[in-house]
Design a protein that fits this description.
Chain lengths: ~160, ~160
């Protein structure tokens, strides 16, 4: 590992940890290639028609998610840390170029990938919040279920690559 | 230059550009050494009794400024980009570890240093905001005057190093 794992703050963070049976390289590719992100990012029946990625600190990370009813959720943040194949961090609190941006429940996400001895990946996703209230709201919105379902989709896609 | 200069958005950014007669290495040292920052960061008669620096993306940048009346302004943000001797970016919108944090008028600051042919530095400081209202408020608070006066103090200090 060439990164320092995020130290969890139980009052402000929520995390998903799972072992998956695809290697870190493929998980990384699925996370950082727009044409792949659109295929797994939103838990079905939601879709992700649009994804834009400028993979560097300060670079744009935009996703548009669409509900079955056609409502769209257009979110743009920026990457903060990019350690190839190992660690990806981005935030909704800053837009491209690190510009602050207003918005409800800002969060910073960190994805950490570690190869397992069996050729899979120890996958960790953390969302950091600014207050216990925001953490609760994010949890109540179904963060763990949503990110878990999206991860299942990512793994299924990675197996086809 | 090993960085891409920030592209100014006149509706959201404010900038200070000056040529100063100390080299980039000394300006950088004055900006990134806590015991030096405390000597120049706040325009007199304000003081900066405390400065904490963890000079890496996600690392803590804390300053406590004190007014002549003894009021203290304790601000903690985090660094976003550290290009040794050339470019320093940090934000008040995120705390250490990139955690979002609430606060009025969040801004991201970028300091860009370029050596001049005469041995000095072309110094550029930019503050980026999320709205024209925040820009106006920051400007009305005296951003340009304050950062200009602090830069004078920085240059005077750098000449003694």
């Amino acid at each position: 590992m060439s990164f320092t794992p995020h130290v969890l703050d139980r009052d402000l963070d929520i995390e998903l940890i799972r072992e998956v049976d695809v290697p870190p390289e493929l998980v990384w590719r699925a996370w950082t290639t727009p044409e792949l992100v659109t295929q797994w990012f939103a838990p079905k029946p939601y879709e992700t028609p649009i994804c834009e990625i400028d993979l560097r600190p300060g670079g744009r990370f935009r996703t548009v998610m669409r509900s079955p009813e056609g409502d769209e959720f257009d979110g743009t943040g920026c990457f903060l840390d990019v350690v190839d194949g190992e660690r990806l961090a981005w935030t909704s609190a800053l837009g491209p170029g690190f510009r602050p941006q207003a918005g409800p429940m800002p969060f910073t996400a960190v994805i950490e990938l570690e190869a397992t001895s069996s050729g899979g990946t120890r996958y960790r996703a953390v969302a950091m919040h600014q207050s216990p209230e925001d953490l609760k709201q994010h949890a109540d919105m179904g963060f763990l279920e949503g990110w878990g379902a999206a991860l299942d989709q990512l793994v299924a896609l990675a197996k086809t690559l």
